[in-house]
Write a structure and sequence with these properties.
Number of domains: 3
Helix content: 25-40%
Structural class: alpha/beta
Number of strands: 16
Largest sheet: 6 strands, mixed
Strand order of the largest sheet: 10-6-1-2-3-16
Distance between the termini: 21 Å
Order of helices and strands: EEEEEHEEHEEHEHEEEHHHEHEEHH
CATH topology of the largest domain: Nucleotidyltransferase, domain 5
Length: 347
């Protein structure tokens, strides 16, 4: 297709511990259009707890995924996340941008538990047009070795990213585009992945806290195997089923409780650090864990607030054939991060 040669194509690449996902978005029309989705599975030992254990397998999967997009020269966008990335909303004296850049390094020393010589820093002023004495700033710090490792992995696969984003921002990007109604009040976005759950709390559409919880679908699968003596394949079939099987009850309640406690601790922290923090009015969930039968209703009952699935394709125009043989209902929860990355327009 000739359109694949244009500069207004962005590719969002999400290298997860269970799947490598690429989303191709065309920005040539007023509304972004999804034109291709490629998903390549990884075995359970290729990436463990965010660390690449088998470079060969991961590099091959990345290369295979990018080749399957049908693109040669691309605007490739990737991201980093995890414990080595800090995102924090802070309040500082209102100054001009150049002064703010100088001020941020000093502020980072107060808020970031890393050696300042080993991190990449960035920030965004949330109220640039404000006239108060103070301004709200979103401060981001990522360990340089994390960024360099992601770059090296992609270069080994023959790919050079033009943009390296932060997981939480990419998730927010897709969430805002597809769920504008969630940009009012305080809401939580849970991206329940294979090994971890990314928690992002938004206040009037602005990310104010992001945390990673060490719970993912791998834990659910291991619980089912251990408790019921079933195989990996049988456990996976239960987790991907459409109906809640009784065998899921124990895993859903145990791991659901951990997710609920993680959210409650995050909101307690915000409440104690800011007098103006209110109540979370709703939770949205995406990632493979959002498809676990019965988990979202269980969380809604436990938290006593609405918990609903977040759909990365809810308001995105999808070109005919973009998903090929993939089911939109099944893959939509998996694509929030890669869609958010691909929504970054080509420079």
């Amino acid at each position: 297709m000739a359109i694949f040669g244009r500069k207004n194509i962005s590719v969002g690449l999400d290298v997860g511990s269970g799947l490598v996902k690429a989303v191709v978005i065309d920005h040539s029309s007023p509304a972004p259009e999804l034109v291709k989705v490629v998903i390549t599975p990884l075995n359970d030992t290729a990436i463990v707890e965010g660390e690449v254990m088998d470079h060969g397998i991961v590099v091959d999967a990345i290369r295979q995924t990018l080749v399957a997009t049908g693109l040669k020269a691309t605007h490739l966008v990737v991201s980093v996340g995890g414990r080595d990335v800090i995102v924090k909303k802070i309040q500082v004296e209102r100054v001009k941008e150049q002064q703010a850049r100088e001020l941020m390094r000093w502020e980072a020393e107060q808020h970031v538990p890393f050696d300042m010589d080993s991190v990449e820093l960035d920030f965004q002023v949330l109220d640039p047009d404000g006239d108060g004495l103070d301004m709200n700033v979103l401060l981001v710090a990522a360990k340089r070795e994390l960024v360099e490792a992601k770059q090296a992995l992609l270069l080994e696969a023959g790919a050079a990213p033009l943009v390296i984003d932060v997981d939480a921002f990419a998730l927010h990007n897709a969430f805002e585009a597809n769920h504008p109604e969630a940009m009012n009040g305080i809401v939580a976005l849970l991206n329940i992945g294979n090994e971890a759950t990314n928690l992002n709390i938004l206040d009037e559409g602005v990310p104010i806290l992001t945390r990673d919880l060490g719970i993912g679908t791998r834990r659910f699968r291991e619980d089912l195997q251990r408790e019921h003596g079933i195989s990996v394949e049988e456990a996976e079939e239960l987790l991907r089923g459409f109906d809640r099987h009784p065998l899921l009850d124990g895993a859903v309640s145990m791991r659901g409780e951990e997710i609920a406690i993680g959210l409650e601790r995050a909101t307690t922290f915000l409440a104690t650090s800011s007098r103006h923090f209110g109540q979370v009015r709703a939770v949205y969930a995406c990632g493979g864990g959002a498809r676990v039968p019965g988990l979202l209703p269980w969380l809604a009952e436990r938290l006593r607030i609405p918990v609903q699935p977040a759909n990365a394709l809810a308001k995105l125009t999808v070109r005919d054939g973009a998903l090929e043989f993939l089911s939109a209902d099944e893959v939509a929860p998996l694509l929030m991060l890669s869609v958010g990355l691909a929504l970054r327009t080509a420079a």
